[in-house]
Specification:
With 108 residues, this protein is mainly α. It has helices at 3-18, 26-43, 45-54, 59-68, 74-96. It is globular and about 50 Å long. The two termini are 24 Å apart.
Amino acid sequence: MAEADNIFLVKQQLSPEFNIQEDGPWEEWMNQLAVRINAMILSDFTGLVNLLYRLDVSEPRIRAALSDQAGSDAGSLIAALMVERQLEKIRTRELYRSAKDIPDDEKW
């Protein structure tokens, strides 16, 4: 799968979580994501932590990114880590996807 397809999948997965539009340029979408994350930091930090946990974004990676780039926009850093983790999961699924299609009645 091409990287553009993976980016599309990430936008498709994260957009509903943050109530942002999937369409539009990547940079604009990332900016919107960062703004929503910053809003959650201020108004719903517990919800953000739960979302990060559900998306499997590593707490040590978040801490490291925030401390390494102190003074940078936290929303942008966390957005980049979310996207990076989603891309990792997509690539892993592609890597271990079976070459044979499994009939629907045999899927779990």
